[in-house]
Amino acid sequence: MAEILAEYKTYLLLELGRGKNTADSYLSDIVLFCEFAGKRIESFADVDADLLADWLASLSGADRPSTQSRKLSAMRSLARFLMEEGVWEKNLCDFFARPKTRRAPPEILDTGEIDAMVSLPPPDSPEGVRDRAMMELMYSSGLRVSELCSISYADIDAEQRIIRVRGKGGKTRLVPVGSMALDAVEKYRAVRPLLCKKAAAPELFITRRGKKISRKTFWYNLKKYARLSGVEKNVKPHMLRHSFATHLLRNGANLMLIREMLGHSDLSTTQIYTNLANDDIRREYEKKHPRSKMDVEPDI
Question: By residue range, what is the domain housing residue 238?
């Protein structure tokens, strides 16, 4: 089965154009299925509907609906590959419905919290200047953390105030970038050689060793600045992206344009931010409308 999984990963990366993170996630879920199957199968040709039903039943008691849905998506993808390879004659996953999920509204940072965090990195150290530039750029343009860590200086057009972003599946999009982020990037560019005097990685954001900064390092630094600034939320990099989208929507930006800037292929993914905007409207109504809180005796 190891050989089939290796071929499947190549299929995901080269034929479907999936990103490395997506391919790794799908493979991880399928390996867990293989561990569940154990001695019941010697190859994927031995998988039947009963085994899949038992596996999905085990997930329903242990995983959230969103996690169950992701794992079934991975198996559906593998099923299509197995059919193309002639291992399966029919798609066994068609017998099973995707679990119903209700996506919770994303947690965001308010502008005061963001201001407090980005003001903390020390301006007299190259790392501090780098960290501020990374936070400013991520919030300014709504980048994914993987996109942020992969940006090169050539991707930024300061004159046009546009950044070229390579997103999921190798898709490229152009996203506006604000003046504060551009200023922070220019300051970082001036001190970048101080981080590493030898040949460095082509990416814009690097470590003292000249290597591309990792997502884990950025996450660690972000949590550090959140803690030092007094932000009590469990801050993660994606919260800056969520904040970017929500703040745009609250200030009247068009949902379709936000979708383009975020690089979402499906508008329904972007629409989750409207839930937050609707909550704002509800709170404002309850606060301001004269009849929103009045106790009115019904006529009987």
Answer: 111-283
